[in-house]
Amino acid sequence: MVFEVVNLAKFSEVFASTTELSSCALGGRVVSVSDEFFAEAFHLLLVEPATSLKGQFGPNGALYSGWESRRHNPTFDWCIIKLGTSGTIVGFDIDTGHFNGNEAPQASVDGFYDPTSEDPDKNDARWTEILPKVNLGPNSRHLFTVPPGSRATFVKLNMYPDGGIARFRVYGHVIPIVPEDPLKSFDLAHVYAGGRVVLTSDQHFGVGANLILPGRGKNMGDGWETKRSRLPGHKDWAIIQLSTPGYLEQVEIDTNHFKGNFPDSCEVHALHLDKEVDWRVGRAEDQDWKVVLPRIKLGPHRQHFFQLENVAGVLYTHVKVTIHPDGGIKRVRVIGRRSRKEASEGVTTIEEESPKVKDIQLALTKDQSLKNSKVLPVLPLTPEAFAPFGQVIQAYGDHAAAPKGIKITPANGGTADKFHKLSLLAQSYPVGAGATTGISVYRCQPLTDIAMDGTCQLKELERHAFTNQVFVPMGKGFGEELTHPAEKYLVVVTKSGMDDKPDLNSLRAFTATTAQGIVYNTGIWHRPITVLEKVCRST
C-alpha cells in the first residue's frame, strides 16, 4: 500500500475539506482493545488535543491523555474503532503528544467497509491494510495520506510492539446517508448526509466543521466561535457545501451554550455551483450569492428556526452563514429536499439512520382572499423569528438565555423572578368609537382536520386594526379534567401587502407551547386561535 508523509505545516491544505470520521463527536467509539493497562484507548478519539499530565499518577503509574499499553509485548497491540459514520479514507493523524520514551515506535492501520456489520474482532477475515507499518517519533503528530478509494466502517490501529499514542484521527469523506424518498425533507448540511464546511473567515475558538455535527454538543468548545472584533461593520462567515444539490426550505441556527458571546444577528445566502472551486484563493466573495434569510437578530443559548426566502424552485449547492459582528454558533441545520435526479444517482439510503425532521405543515387553499396555493412549514416559535409580527411572552429558567435587554429582578420575597415589560399594550381607537381595551378568555376545541400527510388548511385570516392582541394559554378549565390536554397551539401570521390584504410572501407559521404567550402587533393578519392536541403535536 502506497502512502505519503505530510508535513504538519500543510495540514490545512491537505485535510481542511475532509471530515474527521473517527471523532467521538461524530459517534466514533472504541470496540475493543488488546491492552490499556496504563491509559485507556477512548482518549484516542477525543476532540480536544492531548494535554500534559506530567507529575500525576494513578494506581498503575503515570497518567496520560492517550492510549498506553504494558511493556514487553512480543507481537503488537491493537485497538478496533468503529467510525462515527462510514467514509472514504484520505489519511490519518497519529499523534504521540506527551509520550516521550514510552511512545509507540511504529503503527499501521487496517479497515473494512460494512455498515450492516456487528462489531468485529481482531481476527476478522475482512481486515485489509490501509496504511502499512510506519515509523513514529516521540511527542509529535504524524500525518499520512493514502490513495483514494479505501472505504471503511471499522478501522484497527496497530502499534508495534507496545507503548503510547495520544490521539488517532481518521480523515476522509462521508458516505452519505439520506432518506430514500426524494420528497422527504432532511438536513442537507448534516455531516452524516455528506455536508462539509469548506471555508470560514475565522475559527479562533471553535472550528467551523463543528457546525454540522450531530446533536447539540456539550459546551462552547464544540461549536464555531470567532475572535472578538473591534472594527465597525465587521462580520464573520462559514460556507457549507450541501450533501447534494437541494431545494431549501428552512434553517436552524443554534446558539446552545453561547450565552454572552452569541452573535448579535445573522443572515444566510445560498449559491448553486456546477463544479468544485478552490475556496482558499479568494473565491468566497466572488460568487453570485442569493439572500435566503435577510439579516435577523439572534438570542443566547437556544435554537432559532427560520423559514427561508427566494428558494422556490431553485436548486442550491452551498450556503453561507454570516454573523454580525462576531461570536459563536453551535449548529446549523439546512432543511430541504434533494432533486429527483440526485436521488437516482448512487447515494446510500439507510432510512432508519437518516436525520429526521417532522413538522405539521400548513396548506393554503385557493380562494379570493389568499389568491394562491402553497405548503408552508410550521416551525417552533422563537422570539427572534416572531419579532417582525409581535412579541413572545415567556419566562426563562436560565436567565442568560433571555433576549438581550430584558430586565429580570427577584420578586415575591425571592420566590419568583420578574421579567419586566415583555410587551406593552397599545390601542389607537378613534375618539368616540365607543371601543375599549380589555381582557377576554377563550375556550378552544383542538384542531381536528389534520390530514394524513401532516397538513392542515389555512382558510381564513383576521387582524385588529387599532390594537395589538395578547394570547396567553391557561390550560384546562376550572373544575374539570381534560382527557387530552393541549400542549401546543398553532400561530400563523403575515403582514399586509400593497393592496392592504395578506401578503403571502411574509406568511409564517409557528407552533407555540403552553409556556409561551404571544402578542400580535397592531394590524398583523393572523389565523384565529388554533389549539393542537397532544396526539397531533409537531416534534
Description:
- This protein has 539 residues and is mainly β.
- It has three domains: 170 residues, Jelly Rolls (Sandwich); 168 residues, Jelly Rolls, CATH 2.60.120.260; 176 residues, Jelly Rolls.
- Helices cover 2% and strands 36% of the residues.
- Strands 1, 2, 3, 7, 8, 9, 10, 11 and 13 form a nine-stranded antiparallel beta sheet that branches.
- A hairpin with a 4-residue loop joins strand 27 and strand 28.
- The radius of gyration is 27 Å and the shape is elongated.
- The C terminus is likely disordered.
| Averaged pLDDT | 87
SS element count, helices: 3
Structural class designation: mainly beta
Helix share, percent? under 10%
General form: elongated
Low confidence ranges: 346-360, 365-372, 477-485, 534-539
CATH architecture tag of the largest domain: Sandwich
Counting structural domains, the number is 3
Please identify which CATH superfamily of the largest domain we are dealing with: Ureidoglycolate hydrolase
Strand content: 35-45%
CATH class of the largest domain: Mainly Beta
**Largest sheet: number of strands, sense, barrel closure:** 9 strands, antiparallel
The tally of beta strands, per DSSP, is 35
Cα radius of gyration in angstroms: 27 Å
CATH topology value of the largest domain = Jelly Rolls
Distance between the amino and carboxyl termini: 48 Å
Organism: Marasmius oreades
Family: Belongs to the allantoicase family.
Pfam families: Allantoicase, Ureidogly_lyase
Protein name: Allantoicase domain-containing protein
